[in-house]
Design brief:
single chain; alpha+beta; four-stranded antiparallel beta sheet; elongated; disordered C terminus
Length: about 400
């Protein structure tokens, strides 16, 4: 395999400037930045996919054209002039949460697997083993104290247990009621899920196998500043309101092939396979993993859960490879120009779009461990765990 690098550059429009300042003359021609791009890829390795990275920068301007005269000591003439900042500064992306390529690649294998469970019925039933006791204790408390007292903390003993109760209630919602309600909705739409899975299995036996796309994440960041100087040479006061907006999308694609391509299933068998896959009725290590206490917390720092999901094989299919794609796009906008030049309203504004596209191929899922990014949801769950173990002092 050979690494190949290609670049392309297109210069923007040309402009001129002339300045006479107390007997000193300065003039010249400037070229505005236009479009620059680079591509790094790998040649060979057919029919497998290769790594790829594309970087592109695209500028758009409203150049400055003006004539300023203060005889006999000063004169300034600008024709399609591009301010200095745009010509000399390299712009990039804002910082976003760190990514884990192994974790996201394993998500692709798990999320595109035709044997994946839409509702892991066995795990759901197992997780509900504590639900009757929870309902019984809640009902008994309501009967003993009444609804009003149950919903208010009116005793010293209850007050000191308030943090623990709040934490327990939040966790019960996140890992009890919320998943249950989501699974019930999926069960109510069971037939639609089965029909969709049947079509996937049919595509599995078509020419080229089953190709699916899986969305992983979208991250955004924005930054705004005022009075950013864009020209400090020809004229001393030319600044702009500067906004940076970054969006990063991550997704993946995978291709699955049947284990026995010469033996496509009958319609009855195909329907049966679709039902078993949707409900997760086949014995699977993933189901056992879901029933292990605190496995959800381990999955924050590892890919064990997704790895086990990618290994389900109810349908009988093998992944021929997956690609992890990342597209980062940042828009730099310069508006609301402030200056002391006459007749240049709206001139000097600019927009620069910086794009980075990456493709990383993977042949199989991996088990990994790292320190995850703690978003709001994860922070709230960890806070609830801490509250469970907190008691207020009397």
């Amino acid at each position: 395999m050979t690494v190949r690098n290609r670049t392309a550059n297109m210069v923007g429009q040309s402009g001129t400037y002339y300045r006479f300042f107390f007997g000193v003359t300065d003039s010249g021609t400037i070229n505005a930045p236009g479009v620059s791009a680079s591509c790094t890829d790998v040649v060979g390795n057919y029919p497998f996919d290769n790594p790829l990275q594309i970087d592109k920068v695209n500028w758009q301007f409203r150049p400055v054209t003006t004539h300023v005269a203060a005889p006999p000591n000063y004169q300034l003439d600008l024709v399609d002039y591009i301010p200095q900042f745009y010509r000399t500064t390299t712009l990039g992306h804002l910082s976003l949460p760190a990514l884990s390529d192994p974790a996201d690649a394993t998500k692709i294998f798990a999320g595109t697997n035709p044997s994946r469970a839409t509702v892991d019925l066995a795990a759901t039933v197992g997780e509900l083993r504590e639900l009757p006791a929870f309902l019984f204790q809640t009902g008994k408390r309501i009967l003993r104290r009444g609804v009003k007292k149950t919903l208010t903390i009116d005793r010293i003993g209850d007050f000191h247990r308030a943090p623990e109760q709040v934490g327990s209630t939040f966790l019960a919602w996140q890992y009890g009621w919320k998943p249950l309600i989501a699974d019930l909705k999926k069960v109510l739409d069971f037939q639609a899920h089965v029909l969709k899975r049947e079509q996937e299995i049919k595509n599995l036996y078509s020419k080229g196998g089953l190709s699916r796309t899986f969305q992983i994440s979208t991250d955004r960041a924005e930054q705004h500043s005022t009075n950013t100087f864009v020209e400090s040479y020809l004229f001393t006061m030319y600044s702009a309101d500067y906004t940076i907006s970054t969006e990063r999308r991550r997704w993946g694609s995978a291709r699955w092939l049947p284990d026995h391509p010469s033996l496509p299933p009958t319609d009855a068998k195909l329907h049966d396979q679709a039902k078993q896959a949707v409900l997760g009725l086949s014995l699977s290590p993933r189901t056992a993993w879901e029933l292990i206490p605190w496995s959800w917390l381990i999955d924050w720092c590892s890919s064990v859960g997704n790895y086990l999901e990618s290994e389900r094989n109810t349908v009988g299919a093998t992944c021929a490879g997956a690609c992890l794609m990342t597209h980062t796009r940042t828009t730099h906008t310069f508006r609301s120009m402030q200056h002391s030049l006459p007749g240049v309203s709206g001139m000097g504004e600019a927009t620069c779009v910086v794009e980075t596209k990456q493709r990383s191929p993977y042949l199989s899922p991996v088990i990994f461990a790292d320190i995850p990014f703690l978003g709001r949801r994860r922070e709230s769950i960890l806070g609830a765990l801490a509250l469970q173990r907190t008691k207020l002092r009397r």
